[in-house]
Inverse folding.
């Protein structure tokens, strides 16, 4: 065939493909166009890019100095090649990140066009006035990168919206799942020894929180992988300011949230704190037992050190974010590739209803999924001179191919959670090969997809506190949890103090207005 | 001519005067006035509330806790740094061999930055891979440096002493080197004891230097911030939330400038009382002489 004939033939095949496939609205992804291998780029976008639309322009992005900001640089280069636009990225330590954002916004300095924000800052973005731009108009613009909102799981989607409107562009998918060493826990010898000691056989994944505690205690402080080093039961991180309070939230959720009660933080009718309820107390006491089945040094660890212990093969259980599962696939740093078990936190059989002040029992463990963490993602400042350009950059990172690339690499800090990173059997569109092509093990693909699908699509979900002052409430939890777990104070007294602290913060922000924001956050 | 000269003096003084008015007095007065308002960044001065911010502070257990541990911190570090600095200065002043070498080495820590020292501390006191526990391991000890309240406090104190002892050393060495030879010669007629000479000749001669060290170190130690910020983040729990870190969080993290300003003034008053007492001591000591 001559070249022109070949071209005509290809054009016909392409046209036929489009005619046949587009009416069903999918190429490998229900409701979405494009796949991680073949992202959808609209004709309008292609035309828009022809003239390098942002040439000579620069946007300034503020990001936390953590792993999650690292991919910003790579994508800034790629995006510049496509659009001509330049991105200046400023990183500040996590401990001062919140204040940098809000000093810029509240004082109206407007130094930054966008922020790689944490989801729990949203209340502050809307206190008094709106500080970030809604993005629906850009999402509807075919010139902008297409990232398919349908791929975002509902637990994370809720975090990117305020009052039902989109403000954030999906990036990270934070949620804490339960990780365990499947290879070790499956050893018959250990199972038998465990049964002798505890009088029952554990399940895989463990049936409830008590089983996790028992397993951690059984495997703590001896060399169960026979590498000549002492191993531990549990690993976590509780350094003040190191996001340790999220462990407590994840762990405590099923002790309080149940079909009888959905409130974890406050009574929405009175704004009285619930954090010193009997359910919260039991959760904290149980967490203390679990933490005691790990290295004492955890009290001074940040997340990297906690993950490292698990990745080195020295801890048998952990519950943390998706980073751990992705990092486990990197043979250079991980000794647990192919040895993982991942599930939603298994829950407890008794939950406390802090509104009605009563314990409620369940035949099966009460499971609560969570979207706990920053779910670090892009938002646009109202002071930006280039809001469309800022959206364009963040949307480029959110595009299916780029997001999948990010989620497959632990060092990016971007965790799995969008439907193209779930296997088909878990309601997603990925195959095991999609993962193994990215150097994941088959075990990693299956376990992470299963575990995180269970978590994000659980019938009950934890409500991440996102009212104004959420940073301050979270900090108060952080300090109290650290005090209790380090043995500095007793759990009951500490939680009462926490409730007092919550009352002070609420009073300062205004009780009525906080109540309004809390109900808004809960969608009531 | 005299009038012109007086005017010229004022012209030359004007920049300094403006500096003091603009960058010292105005912030002091403004922040003092803030302490009587409910003031949150973004909302401005919401209401004049009199001394309510001060009442809130005094009713807050956090305030008393942070003040208590700060006072402990000041007492321990300033005492240790002064004594250690004095001992090192006394040793070096004895014209030992390699005096210049020791003088240089002893002063090195003072040139480090506080935050860097804090992060260095994280590696030194790291409980599973740090130098401190590696050394302690020789004696069968495994100390919870950063994961226990006492350990974290002790780690902060140790680093502070390491960093600031050279300051005491330099000033006290200068003081000792200023003691005239004739005093030593006169003392030698009565005793050969180095301790006696130190007690009755050198110590009285350097008391002003000693007081200066104590005073300057106290002011700085009350304001300790960067070290706990980078070493422990104030934890575990609140065990190393020293006063300035508490003020910083209230003002700069939660934007509650009203309470923050009141807290800052409480600290200012405490430090001023301490300093005035030290000055009084100094005056009395000179008067007695």
């Amino acid at each position: 065939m001559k070249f022109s004939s070949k071209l005509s033939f290809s054009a016909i095949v392409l046209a036929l493909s489009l005619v046949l496939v587009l009416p069903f609205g999918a190429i490998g992804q229900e409701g979405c166009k494009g796949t991680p291998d073949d992202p959808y780029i609209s004709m309008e976008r292609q035309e828009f890019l022809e003239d390098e639309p942002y040439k000579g322009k620069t946007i300034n992005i503020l990001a936390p100095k953590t792993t999650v900001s690292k991919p910003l640089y790579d994508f800034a280069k790629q995006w510049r090649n496509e659009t001509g636009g330049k991105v200046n990225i400023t990183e500040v330590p996590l401990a001062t990140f919140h204040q940098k954002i809000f000093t810029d916004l509240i004082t109206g300095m407007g130094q930054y066009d966008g922020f790689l924000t944490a989801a729990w800052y949203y209340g502050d973005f809307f206190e008094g006035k709106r500080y970030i731009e809604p993005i629906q108009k850009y999402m509807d613009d075919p010139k902008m990168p297409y990232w398919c909102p349908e791929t975002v799981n509902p637990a994370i989607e809720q975090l990117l919206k305020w009052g039902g409107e989109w403000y954030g562009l999906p990036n990270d998918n934070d949620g804490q799942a339960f990780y365990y060493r499947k290879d070790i826990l499956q050893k018959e010898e250990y199972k038998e020894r465990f049964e002798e000691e505890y009088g029952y056989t554990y399940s895989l994944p463990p049936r409830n929180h008590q089983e996790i505690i028992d397993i951690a205690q059984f495997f703590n402080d001896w060399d169960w992988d026979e590498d000549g080093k002492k191993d531990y039961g549990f690993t976590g991180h509780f350094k003040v300011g190191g996001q340790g309070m999220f462990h407590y939230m994840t762990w405590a959720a099923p002790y309080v949230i149940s079909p009888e009660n959905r409130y974890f933080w406050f009574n929405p009718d009175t704004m009285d704190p619930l954090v010193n309820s009997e359910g919260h107390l039991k959760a904290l006491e149980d967490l203390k037992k679990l933490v005691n089945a790990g290295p004492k040094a955890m009290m001074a660890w940040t997340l990297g050190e906690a993950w490292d212990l698990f990745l080195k093969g020295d801890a048998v259980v952990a519950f943390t974010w998706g980073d751990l599962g992705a990092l486990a696939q990197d043979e250079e740093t991980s000794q647990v590739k192919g040895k993982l078990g991942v599930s939603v936190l298994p829950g407890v059989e008794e939950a406390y209803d802090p509104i009605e002040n009563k314990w409620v029992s369940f035949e099966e463990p009460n499971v609560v999924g969570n979207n706990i963490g920053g779910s670090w993602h892009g938002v646009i400042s109202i002071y930006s001179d280039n809001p469309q350009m800022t959206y364009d950059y963040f949307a480029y990172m959110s595009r299916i191919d780029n997001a999948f690339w990010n989620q497959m690499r632990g060092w990016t800090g971007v965790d799995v959670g969008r439907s193209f990173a779930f296997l088909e059997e878990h309601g997603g569109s990925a195959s095991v090969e999609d993962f193994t092509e990215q150097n994941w093990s088959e075990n990693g693909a299956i376990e992470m997809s299963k575990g995180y699908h269970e978590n994000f699509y659980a019938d009950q979900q934890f409500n991440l506190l996102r009212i104004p002052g959420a940073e301050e409430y979270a900090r108060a939890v952080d300090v109290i949890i650290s005090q209790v777990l380090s043995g500095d104070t007793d759990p009951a007294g500490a939680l009462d103090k926490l409730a007092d602290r919550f009352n002070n913060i609420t009073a300062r922000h205004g009780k009525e207005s906080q109540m309004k924001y809390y109900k808004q956050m809960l969608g009531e | 001519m005299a009038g012109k000269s007086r005017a010229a003096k004022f012209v030359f003084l004007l920049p300094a005067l403006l500096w003091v008015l603009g960058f010292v007095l105005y912030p002091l007065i403004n922040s003092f006035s803030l302490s009587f308002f409910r003031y949150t960044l973004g909302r401005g001065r919401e209401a004049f509330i009199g001394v309510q911010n001060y009442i809130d502070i005094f009713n807050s257990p956090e305030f008393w806790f942070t003040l208590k541990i700060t006072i402990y911190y000041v007492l321990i570090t300033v005492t240790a740094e002064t004594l250690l600095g004095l001992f090192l200065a006394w040793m070096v002043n004895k014209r030992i061999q390699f005096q210049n070498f020791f003088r240089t080495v002893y002063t090195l820590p003072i040139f480090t930055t506080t935050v860097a020292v804090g992060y260095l501390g994280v590696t030194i006191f790291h409980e599973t891979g740090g130098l401190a526990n590696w050394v302690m391991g020789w004696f069968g000890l495994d100390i919870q440096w950063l994961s226990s309240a006492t350990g974290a406090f002790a780690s902060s104190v140790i680093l502070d002493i390491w960093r600031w002892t050279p300051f005491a050393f330099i000033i006290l060495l200068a003081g000792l080197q200023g003691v005239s030879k004739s005093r030593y010669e006169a003392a030698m007629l009565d005793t050969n004891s180095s301790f006696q000479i130190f007690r009755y000749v050198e110590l009285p001669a350097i008391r002003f230097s000693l007081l200066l060290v104590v005073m300057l170190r106290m002011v700085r130690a009350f304001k300790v911030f960067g070290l706990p910020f980078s070493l422990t983040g104030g934890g575990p729990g609140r065990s190393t939330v020293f006063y300035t870190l508490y003020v910083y969080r209230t003002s700069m993290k939660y934007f509650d400038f009203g309470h923050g300003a009141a807290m800052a003034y409480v600290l200012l008053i405490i430090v001023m009382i301490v300093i005035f007492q030290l000055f009084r001591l100094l005056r009395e000591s000179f008067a007695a002489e």
